[in-house]
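This part of the workshop introduces the protein records we will be handling. An example says more than a description, so a record of this kind follows:
>
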Amino acid sequence: MDRLRDLAQRYGVDKDGGLPIVRPVPSEPSESPSPQAMSLYEPSSSPRGAAPAPEYVETRSPVVGSHPRHSQPLSSAYSVPAPRVDLPASMYHRDHRVVPPDHQRSEPDNSRAPGGQQTPHRNKPKICSHGEPERLSDRRTKRKSPVVTVAYDRCFARQLRVDRLRLRPLLTSVGAALLLASCSSGGLLADQGGPSKTSASPPTSSTTTAIPPTTTTTVPEEPGWTTLSTGPRGIAIDERTFPQPDGSQVTVARFLFNHVDYSLHVGSQDPPTANAAIGPDSGPAVSGAEQPLLLACLNGGFKVNAGAGGFEVDGQVLVPLSAGLASFVIDTAGLGQVGVWGQDVPAPGIPVTSVRQNLPPLVVGGQPSTQVADVAMWGATLGGGAVVARSALGEDAKGDLLYAASMSTLPVDLANALVTAGATSAMELDINPNWVQLATAATPGAPLVAQVPGQSRPADQCQAGWTRDFIAVLSIG
């Protein structure tokens, strides 16, 4: 009795408390049942006068639609009489069919029908690889709504994802093998931009040589450039020498955008600070806070009494700024720009903290100044000679800053070297042997090394303290 009651609760009875029906759909339509068999399906009268029980209830699909199979006759071989069982009203569908709760909608345990006959499993739900049964309603005719089609394909989609995950290690191995094969056949260039290395053995046999992986910290960014400094983000400073037609050798150091920032320092004698409050990060020497990040130091511009331009540091104007002059500008984030004050710089909406001006621009719009051949306009020289130590600072289209210097050169040589290196704007900095200086460190905080051949200033001049202004280049972590 308990077994029958459980079956009635799981697979439904008619609303009037009629007979429960536990009948899997046979594989083939059965013959017309006998009157004795049909008597088992006659609904009993109900004291409530409710609607009669339906002719057919499919036990594996609680809510029955208009499928042609629903009109098939029932077989008495699969029918079991049982006592009346009243179910809660919440389990009744609007068409008087019983709707079991979600947790009971599973495959019934009726592998054998009454009488010992094996029950066909024609409509047994498929099981996805993830273990979730596929509902029978998902497998009905394609005349159903698109939602049914999506539910039906769920097994296939999940299996496809599983197969893709299983194939990933295989694809990775194949990719690695192809990469290794391309390396052995000269598909990859050697380090430093050199020619590819191939095996010297005959074509019938090949020898694979493993090439060590390269990183941005060991390989120059461009052929012809030599790495001077590296930071946490890779190459921070590289350099290249540009020979000039007059025999001058101009060294250009490139400070890569978004790898370094800048700090303008005053000298102990120039510019005059008067009553300005100069912090340790802008004083005559590199501060203790800057030292662990220090990658380079380079000279500033002319003395204030030369009248070459204004000077601002930490938001304090020491010498008034003049429009139309070439200017090196540092914003509050530490990023540097080179341009013409009032035209190119400062950039709109960018707050400025420090400015160093010096003469008219040396390079404008990617071309040397039209006055570059007038040597007298680019500063007084020791002994009145034209070919002396000179330096300049420019910016390229990517935002990299370019420092050019030589201990024996002309203004036009600096301009040509900067334009060749990609500068779109540039300004001349200090001149004469005592004031041209560039020193760089291999890594942040490492010892500084002089980079301009023949420079007279020691490499650690900015760490020991300098009488003139200078620019510190710091690594970005």
Residues 325 and 417 are 21 Å apart (CA to CA). The longest helix spans residues 154-184. The chain has three domains: 1-122, 125-185, 227-475. The mean pLDDT is 74.
